[in-house]
Amino acid sequence: MSSEIIGLHQWFDSAPGRYLLAWEQACMDEAVADIFGYHALQLGMAPVDGLRNNRMPHQWLALGSEDVPGPCDEGAEPQSQTPPLRAVALWADAVALPFPSASLDLVVLPHTLELSVDPHTALREVERVLVPEGRVVIAGLNPLSLWGLRQMRARLLQRWTGASLYLPDVGEFIGYRRMRDWLRLLSFEVESARFGCYRPAVRSAEWLERMKWVDPLGERWWPIFGSAYFLVAVKRVHGMRLLEPAWRARRARVAATVPVVRRSGPPSARGKR
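The chain above was modelled as a monomer; its predicted structure follows.
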């Protein structure tokens, strides 16, 4: 398992890895800017700072066994190969988070589910710790893309030619539709989703730069075939009713009209009765 994680961090230091990292960082900066609350957690992937543009007062970076490049001595604190962009607050397993239920307003998962030994259980754990109407931000690699096709071809040829893989050989790549179905099962509602990184699967920075014209074409003509996807989902609680401010209810009552019943006939007729 350690070699897989080393390969992942080494891949993020390559030209296509830096290209993907820059796109994901821009997406996260835009998505978390207007998410409000008090407690935010990024789980895994120290090279990405998914909370740097968020204004919640309490923010934590948690790394797990997937972020440890190699075995460490018993009792020693594990060290990540890539220096994190923010201080590591705790070491935690994605399938057993050390937070009470309904205690976090935002959870960021940059490739965390792909590296987890049990991604569905990890997503269920995220649902447990999120408050109602809390947000989860997920970034993942798209198997239905040019990068995914090259990875599949390299796997087939690897048995006979020993060809190297283009993407890191880690965990399981979870497609967008599959991820969306998992979220729906856990009562999440996908608030926004986007795909990116449409350039061909080349390794050199020079060729990636030459192919930058492919990105706007991909966004317009084949948007769901980007090499990566990014989504924001909201935790919905069925039967929950949000309370409105008291002043708004008072204003509604004051503005309401009261119907008046009028009796027909002259006053003299009512007196004779």
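The radius of gyration is 26 Å.
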